[in-house]
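Lay summary. Proteins are chains of building blocks that fold into shapes, and those shapes determine what they do. In this project we predict the shape from the chain. Here is one chain we studied, written as its sequence of building blocks.
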Amino acid sequence: MRKIIFCLFSFICTLTIVNAQITTHTLDSINNSYQACLDKGQQMIKCTSNYYAVMDSLLNIVYNAVRRKMDSTGRNALKADQLKWLKQRDIFFAKKDAQFEQKTKSGEWGRDDRLIIYDEKAIFVEKRVEYLMTL
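And here is the predicted shape, written in a compact code that computers can read:
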């Protein structure tokens, strides 16, 4: 599993170094690898937490690539927008963590349901990546 994540991260970094472009093909590749990991039916929480980690790394790569193409006014606007999004992300993540804790304490969910939370967090970040790719 670590090998897969390392390969994906290396692939992303190579794309960034070569031409500073992440495409929807990159996202598709990441999502396909994630699904393949889940389809094995083993260590699914690890698959999901690694998927989130890759999306979070990709967010940083795309943000910096977009930022480099902008003038100072654009960079300032992007930074303000990113700070606003980070606040929204923190609120969303806190709600998801609270939901997990509540449902776990009530016995409705088990530990394995943590993968649902990781998945929802990763999707939240992926949407931001997709937005930044349009800039």
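What the prediction tells us: Residues 2-133 form one domain.
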